[in-house]
Design goal:
alpha/beta; Purple Acid Phosphatase, chain A, domain 2; 6-stranded mixed β-sheet; 35% helix; globular
Length: 260
């Protein structure tokens, strides 16, 4: 049975890390202030900048603080989690300790009487063939199992290397219009997911391009809402960003979390 709620807040791409304290504090405030006002909170991936295994949180006071904040929130509202491309190794231990419910990608939910398809969004970026090959490889259970057997400092080293490469590629692609298109979701991928799930409303993150789209392909039409990433720690290079998508009986709209 699909989750059903009268109201919900949806967030993604917070990329929480100790080096971004303002963003982290806004998440802690969100858990205390805005989130308890709805029936459910959906986190659609990339809550953390990277995740190298649930066992790593034992030696990370920061990850433990995030864990406590979510666990406290879960006592007040129903919380859901969907893996992102940075934290797909979040496992059963972390999910259990936080009280969240893990969702598949994509998944169908009903909010305020309407059915929605939820996804992180990276699987929809089908124009980026290189990334899709990489994604298919690292999502294989045997690869993940092998990686988690490595010493913790090795895993952190691999994550830092991938993180550095990803940041460099992102900066390069931001300067190229063709690369920006490559990084975005494709209409064909969105249409296929929505047809398969028999819905015409989609919410995703990953692209850091928050907007509401009315789209169509051939005879199929749908709505697409893109969630914002969060960054309150680098105003010198980018505008501060932090928002959530609020859905209730009054409709669908973005909630600006910078002004709150």
């Amino acid at each position: 049975m699909i989750p059903q709620h009268a109201s919900a807040l949806l967030i993604s791409d917070l990329h929480l890390t100790p080096s971004m304290p303002l963003t982290a504090q806004r998440f802690f405030d969100f858990c205390e202030k805005e989130a308890p006002k709805v029936e459910a909170v959906f986190i659609l991936g990339d809550l953390f900048e990277y995740w190298v295994g649930d066992d790593a949180s034992a030696s990370s006071p920061f990850q433990q603080e995030v864990q406590r904040a979510i666990a406290n929130l879960s006592t007040k509202v129903k919380t859901y989690y969907l893996h992102g491309n940075r934290d797909f190794l979040i496992g059963k231990s972390f999910i259990k300790k936080t009280g969240m419910t893990l969702l598949s990608d994509p998944t169908i939910v009903e909010i305020a009487g309407q059915k929605w398809a939820l996804a992180h969004g990276d699987a929809l970026c089908t124009a980026d063939l290189g990334y899709q090959v990489f994604r298919s490889f690292v999502r294989k259970p045997w690869i993940q199992k092998l990686f988690l057997t490595l010493p913790l400092n090795w895993r952190r080293g691999v994550a830092q290397h991938l993180r550095s490469n990803s940041h460099s590629q992102y900066q390069t692609q931001q300067r190229s219009a063709s690369s920006q298109l490559k990084m975005d979701v494709t209409r064909a991928a969105c249409a296929a997911v929505l047809k398969d799930q028999s819905v015409d409303r989609l919410i995703h993150g990953h692209t850091h391009l928050p907007a509401h789209h009315e789209e169509s392909l051939d005879t199929q039409a749908w709505q697409r809402w893109v969630l914002s990433d969060w960054d309150l720690d680098h105003p010198e290079s980018l505008h501060p960003r932090a928002s959530a998508l609020l859905i209730d009986g009054a409709g669908v709209r973005y909630l600006d979390l910078i002004k709150h």
